Amino acid sequence: MTTLQKVTVFGTGVLGSQIIMQAAYHGKDVTAYDITDEVLAKLPERYEWMRGFYRRDLPDFDEARFDRAIESITTTSDIEQAVADADVVIEAIPEDLDLKKSVWAKIGAAVPEHTVLLTNTSSLLPSSFADATGHPERFLALHFANFIWKNNTGEVMATAQTDPKYFDMVLEFSDEIGLLPVPVRKEVPGYVLNSLLIPWLGAGAALYANEVANPADIDNVWRTATGAPRGPFEVYDTVGFNVAYHINKNSDDPTKRKFAEILREGIDAGTTGIGAGKGFYSYDKDGNNLGPVEDWNIENRKGTQG
């Protein structure tokens, strides 16, 4: 059993809110941080959204335990208050290197000497912003998959500066919060999961951005020909448009930048995937796919008719 009981999560978006609940549901004392109280006020709605999935996906789901988890979570928009007693800080903010450096500098200046520092970055190398923390020896990555309660991998990846004792400690912590601990032995962007997933998603995005086929048709080909349960655009809806946008927007590849701009349209409209009830597909309150949103079809998009 580790001593990592008091958990602070930075970022309360689609994945951050899932991390908060995952830790709280498994008995950790969780503090949720975000930049404003208005953002934090959206958390109860996210918890209720997750409750339906927990109920559906976990055979041993305990309603009372879920309620206790919600009651145990505290929130704050004050960084010093958020980390004052933290045993571990988990950062789940957008994939923007400058933003991560800025936030980690503030966290690092305020954390106690014993606090373990974890990033959930999905595409950046932790070593590219380890020094910003001021404590690179206790900084490393713990990467969560979306729909954590079900897709419960915990990829643990250190940098060259990480003290090995923290690598072992975080593997054990991952198990304590219901994850399958996955030791990643060499620092690579994307860990194991995203090293496999991102090229596949990128191939789907390129087909659409280059107007080869519509999202639903691309997904249908993949599902039918491979027997896979979901195609790339169904996965984009699961991951959420914001994550994919930040990964693609500054790419050297013009096709990836073009796809980022397409995602930006959905973000601006508030249709960012399952969490919003609508992305490339529409969803009911239980997250069931109701069918493709035809506005995304190539023939329906402005300037592409004919």
Describe this entry's structure for a reader.
The protein is an alpha/beta fold and 306 residues long. The protein has two domains: 179 residues, Rossmann fold (3-Layer(aba) Sandwich), CATH 3.40.50; 108 residues, N-(1-d-carboxylethyl)-l-norvaline Dehydrogenase, domain 2. Strands 3-2-1-4-5-6-7-8 form an eight-stranded mixed beta sheet. Strands 9-10 form a two-stranded antiparallel sheet. β6 and β7 form a beta hairpin. The radius of gyration is 19 Å and the shape is globular. The termini are far apart. One of its GO terms (molecular function) is 3-hydroxybutyryl-CoA dehydrogenase activity. This is 3-hydroxybutyryl-CoA dehydrogenase. One of its GO terms (biological process) is fatty acid metabolic process.
What topology emerges from the helices and strands here?
Layout: E1 6-10, H1 14-25, E2 29-33, H2 37-40, H3 43-57, H4 63-72, E3 74-76, H5 79-83, E4 88-91, H6 97-110, E5 116-119, E6 139-144, E7 153-157, H7 164-176, E8 180-184, H8 193-209, H9 215-226, H10 232-239, H11 241-248, H12 254-269, E9 281-283, E10 289-292
Parallel strand pairs: 1-2, 1-4, 2-3, 4-5, 5-6, 7-8
Antiparallel strand pairs: 6-7, 9-10
Helix pairs in contact: 1-3, 8-10, 8-12, 11-12
